[in-house]
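Page header: ASSEMBLY MODEL / two components / 304 residues total.
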Amino acid sequence: MASGFVNWFKFSSPATFYPVARTIGRSAAVIAVILIAIGLYMSFFVAPTDYKQGEGYRIIFVHVPASWMSMFIYVVMAIWAALGLIFNTRLSAMMAQSLAPTGAIFAFLSLWTGSFWGKPMWGTWWVWDARITSELLLFFLYLGYMALRSAFDDPRRGDRASAILLLVGVVNVPIIYYSVQWWNTLHQGATIKLGEESTMDDTMLIAMLIMTLGFWAYSIAVAMMRLRNVILERERSAGWVRQMAGEGL
Amino acid sequence: MAEFFHMGGYALYVWGSFGATALLMIAEPLLLRSRSRQIRQRIMRLARLEQAAQQ
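Prediction written out in full:
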């Protein structure tokens, strides 16, 4: 299968990936805008009013995608961290670095929108419930990762130390996911389970999935924007950046 | 229209959630874009200074 062989290591050089990141980022941005526009329209005008929670349930169209993305981005960062430790590629650590603030934003939004759902439905803004507490811990893991990474004068040392933090913290993700089954929590159980039929109205489910795909494309778009910034900052003394600077960046 | 914004009495909660999400998801790419401009300007300024020093 020599014809299908791609030399992935070629792409692990920041200089090669810099223009690729622009193409990926722009395509993802277009997809994100389209999907989120459709998702928002469906969230408000197609999905029916919930018979128990009235219009208040519409919060789930941002709450669930934000929560899923907060967990998913963390796992992707941990994979990049592991690849970076194994292959010692600079780009892997830069990928993790570029995803972190977006993951933190989604973890924050998960807590914020959850709170705005909890107040009218449970009667409280906050409760130290297993799922909410473990999601708060995820938010702190993002902040801790960013603080630790930037605390080193040598960015490569910061990459390695923060990669280990990411890998240790990954244990929290299944805890968040299964918390509603393992503990008796106030947070409701999963409505969408793998391999089971959903108990939701179809249009609600589709709206939620479209919003999730939209958030997913958004994450790729902003991560690629940030990656290009990170590459320029960290490689500013490299020959290829200087050459580009001469041509007017 | 007013009924739509009223959200069946859940206006504060629904718009508080969608509003915060929209705010952050619009602010993030805008901040990244201005940061990108800053970085590129700084690198180009340094490159010009170096060129001037060499001449």
